[in-house]
Recover the amino acids of this structure.
């Protein structure tokens, strides 16, 4: 039977403020446990929250950039639930009057543009981090809590269920990420949990108007995870429906190692959050004039910049996006590190465009491009010259790679055995070995395919 | 000469004139504590050592010829739900039996700029839930006027200490009458300022939108001085009001000529004690004879104030008290897993009344009941406010009883929480509307129990009720009456 996939995302993004949302503690990632804490974020008896105005500012900017209506009257609410990473046992969040609503972004997948509507954006505080003696809270003899993250400001961006495929979900997440990066309101480091998504997915028969029963997967913090988890979940639901079964409304976790989703809790046992207007904070009043001022102060956003580049440098849509990413990523990183203005950079617009063309033609991989860029930054050289001189051309020749693959398989019987025994993770090690021996020049996609082909045979 | 029974402003003058030293004063209060504290039991914690150091500091200052502030060297006490750095703050709960705050409440910081002598922390109903101080997890406090009676509550320890002379002044908190009602029961002066006048930072929350800190004193003069110290905007409390604080001692004038005073008939409830009513009516006549014009006003939603309060306050409390779960502090009771540990801890360490209110509040906020209870209560709260708004278009202040009865016997109300809740009819509407209210002594019942008169002001207009309270107080001797406790030892 053929189904239509319906996906909605709730993206949590930590905001890049120096201090927490309701107190003056630092938000630095990776600080020694329980050092960025004070009576307020620890929720000690008697303390009161005070809103960090930067958080409101960043949330409004994100709202405007994501084409939302900014609410003139917005308020905080308490979301009550008991969990040891939450010192007050309620999370200060927003319920019925969020800071922004009714937005959208346009995404492009396979050359087609699609509009994904955004339901709302609200502000809230992050929870602490549990460190279990075992693997989960249930099978642990003890757990410790690190409250450094408690009170780090978050915005939650909720989409309408307008997304129809894992690729669209990824494109949407990428778009939101780039907007937040351009605004400079979030570090968007997914590996540090700055940006993570809860994904809702359901299937319905093609042509049906009613939504099917959904499953939710929480805290996916890489694009790959989102795509893989969705692909798996869609297949799982298809199988159930094909067999005449029913989908249970539930929260599932993605086991990245095993590559499967697992039931976490069913909706029947779901919580009643007993929302309560936060009596310790005043409502947030934002006038139309203030909103206009924020709008005028926004930087050029990805879509606008892309169009400008396409026109000026005669680039394809894909290349233009790559260029934009390089500017926002490596180039601005170097500029910041050396405290330079872009006009002082040795990397010319033409050379950067040329480098991106090399990537999209497959001459060099994105990883190798980083090395090329380093050189461009130092010398201002033409990227083609650098690639030739340093012998950095990507090996896409299957024959050449196959030799290395065979050698690696022969030299690593243990990981090979593990992989065959069902440990999907160990292929990562083998890929790494091949990449190492090719000095990073092998095309990782080809390596992966070749290894799988040989081991699964 | 005994000193414990004098108001702070008299003692301040004696210190300034070097008639006494701060240490002499403190030792006299210590002596009084030794004489009567085992009967009154107003204190949960005493801090005698630091109190003595503070007194010595003030004496040194005086010896050097430095000028001293109003409260310097005057011994007082703080309710045990206000955080004092390094001094146990239990909220009279087993849950916080060993909680030593690592920070000071804003009001404590403000007091400290005055170098007062802090005697300790006073008893209260657990988490300020109750009107008799019988809900303390440790022991009940006794009314100095009759040890068989309650001192009122929840600031019962603070009121009893001032009435018994075991503190010259004290700090309390008022969520539904918790300063004014014990002031009335113990024959002292107590004021709940306008919501937002005094910072709540460091006050352990019961119901955040209703809680307010205020002083309990021997007379209105002390009350005005204490307010000057306590009031003011605090950036740490988002609900504190950024308004100018007048010098309240400027309101200590004997003049209420032309003041229009509203008299709400709804506050003279069925079942009101006859002696209390007589005392209140006499006081109103007195106000008239002093030059005020008394007119009837109607507050038609008064009847709904109690049910509104007993939904909103528990709803907020259920959330405020959620943090006491045995995880990061508090007395943990072990369980088979985390949920079991939390359940066992909360079951064992909270008292009956606290648990009752958490249940009511959780219920009122539950899906399916939220609109019927919580939202409706919010709407009625607005109506109660409007009652006052309308009345204050016609009058400058409102006069009413503080409580419908005098202090009752310990244990008398235990079996009937609802009856106890009805006690709050005259005080709760002010908390719902955020208005200031003062309770001052206005006479005695036939059994020689004090009666309190309540004066209610417009928002931020503590000045007018202090003026009226002072004028009335100076026309009688009630504030000079001393609880008969330990009289033979004087």
């Amino acid at each position: 039977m053929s189904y239509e996939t319906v996906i909605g995302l709730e993206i949590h993004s930590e905001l890049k403020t120096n201090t927490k949302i309701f107190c003056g503690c630092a938000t630095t990632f990776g600080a020694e446990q329980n050092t960025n804490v004070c009576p307020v974020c620890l929720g000690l008896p008697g303390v009161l929250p005070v809103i960090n105005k930067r958080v409101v500012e960043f949330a409004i900017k994100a709202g405007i950039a994501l084409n939302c209506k900014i609410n003139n009257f917005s308020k905080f609410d308490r979301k009550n639930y008991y969990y040891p990473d939450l010192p007050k046992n309620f999370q200060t969040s927003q319920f019925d009057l969020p800071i922004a609503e009714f937005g959208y972004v346009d995404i492009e997948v396979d050359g087609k543009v699609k509009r994904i509507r955004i339901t709302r954006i609200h502000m809230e505080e992050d929870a602490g981090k549990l460190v279990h003696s075992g693997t989960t809270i249930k099978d642990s003899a003890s757990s410790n809590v690190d409250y450094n993250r408690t009170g780090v400001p978050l915005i939650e961006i909720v989409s309408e269920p307008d997304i129809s495929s894992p690729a669209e979900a990824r494109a949407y997440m990428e778009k939101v990420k780039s907007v937040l990066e351009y605004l400079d309101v979030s570090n968007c480091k997914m590996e540090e949990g700055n940006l993570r998504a809860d994904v809702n997915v359901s299937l319905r028969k093609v042509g049906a108007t009613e939504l099917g029963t959904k499953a939710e997967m929480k805290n996916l913090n890489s694009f790959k995870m989102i795509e893989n988890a969705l692909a798996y979940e869609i297949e799982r639901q298809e199988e159930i429906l094909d067999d005449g079964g029913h989908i249970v409304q539930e929260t599932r976790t993605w086991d990245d190692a095993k590559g499967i989703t697992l039931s976490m809790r069913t909706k029947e046992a779901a919580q009643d959050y007993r929302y309560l207007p936060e009596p310790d904070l005043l409502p947030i009043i934002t006038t139309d004039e203030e909103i206009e001022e924020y709008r005028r102060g926004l930087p050029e956003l990805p879509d606008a910049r892309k169009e400008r580049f396409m026109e000026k440098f005669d680039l394809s849509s894909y290349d233009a996006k790559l260029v934009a990413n390089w500017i926002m990523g490596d180039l601005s990183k170097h500029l910041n590190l050396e405290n330079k203005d872009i006009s002082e950079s040795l990397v010319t617009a033409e050379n950067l465009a040329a480098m991106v063309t090399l990537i999209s033609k497959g001459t060099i991989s994105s990883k190798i491009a980083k090395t090329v860029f380093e050189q461009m930054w130092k010398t201002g050289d033409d990227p083609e010259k650098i690639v030739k001189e340093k012998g950095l051309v990507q090996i896409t020749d299957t024959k050449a790679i196959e030799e290395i693959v065979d050698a690696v398989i022969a030299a690593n019987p243990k990981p090979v055995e593990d992989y065959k025994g069902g440990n999907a993770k160990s292929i990562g090690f083998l890929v790494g070995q091949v990449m190492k021996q090719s000095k990073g020049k092998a095309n990782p996609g080809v390596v992966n395919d070749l290894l799988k082909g040989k081991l699964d045979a | 000469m005994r000193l414990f029974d004098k108001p702070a402003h008299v003692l301040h003058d004696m210190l300034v004139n070097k008639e006494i030293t701060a240490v002499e004063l403190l030792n006299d209060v210590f002596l009084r504590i030794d004489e009567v504290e085992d009967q009154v039991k107003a204190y949960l914690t005493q801090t005698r050592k630091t109190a003595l150091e503070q007194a010595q500091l003030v004496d040194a200052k005086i010896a050097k010829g430095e000028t001293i502030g109003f409260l310097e060297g005057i011994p007082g006490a703080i309710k045990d739900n206000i955080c004092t750095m390094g001094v146990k703050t239990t909220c009279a709960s087993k849950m916080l039996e060993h909680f030593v705050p690592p920070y000071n409440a804003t009001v404590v910081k403000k007091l400290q700029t005055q170098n007062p002598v802090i005697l300790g922390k006073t008893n209260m109903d657990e988490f300020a839930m109750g009107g008799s101080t019988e809900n303390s997890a440790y022991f009940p406090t006794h009314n100095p006027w009759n040890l068989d009676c309650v001192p009122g509550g929840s600031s019962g320890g603070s009121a009893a200490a001032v009435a018994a002379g075991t503190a010259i002044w004290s700090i309390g908190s008022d969520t539904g009458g918790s300063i004014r009602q014990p002031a009335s029961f113990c024959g002292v002066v107590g004021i709940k300022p306008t919501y937002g006048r005094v910072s709540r930072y460091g006050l352990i929350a019961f119901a955040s939108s209703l809680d307010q800190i205020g002083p309990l004193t021997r007379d209105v003069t002390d009350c005005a001085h204490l307010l000057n110290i306590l009031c003011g905007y605090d950036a740490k409390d988002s609900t504190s009001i950024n308004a100018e604080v007048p010098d309240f001692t400027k309101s200590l004038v004997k003049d209420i000529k032309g003041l229009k005073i509203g008299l709400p008939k709804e506050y003279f409830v069925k079942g009101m004690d006859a002696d209390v009513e007589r005392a209140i009516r006499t006081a109103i006549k007195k106000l008239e004879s002093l030059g005020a014009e008394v007119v009837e006003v109607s507050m038609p939603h008064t009847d709904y104030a109690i049910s509104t309060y007993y939904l909103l306050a528990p709803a907020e409390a259920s959330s405020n008290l959620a943090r006491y779960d045995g995880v990061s502090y508090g007395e943990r009771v072990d369980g088979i897993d985390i949920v079991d540990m939390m359940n066992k801890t909360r079951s064992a360490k909270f008292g009956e009344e606290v648990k009752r209110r958490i249940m009511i509040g959780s219920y009122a906020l539950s899906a399916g009941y939220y609109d019927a209870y919580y939202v409706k209560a919010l709407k009625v709260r607005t109506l109660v406010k409007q009652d006052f708004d309308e009345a204050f278009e016609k009058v400058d202040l409102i006069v009413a009883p503080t409580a419908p009865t005098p202090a009752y016997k310990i244990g008398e109300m235990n079996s009937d929480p609802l009856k106890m809740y009805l006690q709050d009819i005259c005080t709760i509407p002010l908390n719902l509307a955020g208005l200031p209210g003062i309770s001052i002594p206005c006479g005695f019942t036939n059994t020689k129990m004090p009666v309190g008169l309540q004066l209610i002001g417009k928002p931020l207009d503590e000045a007018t009720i202090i003026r009226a309270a002072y004028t009335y107080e100076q026309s009688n001797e009630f504030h000079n009456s001393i609880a008969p406790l330990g009289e033979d030892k004087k």
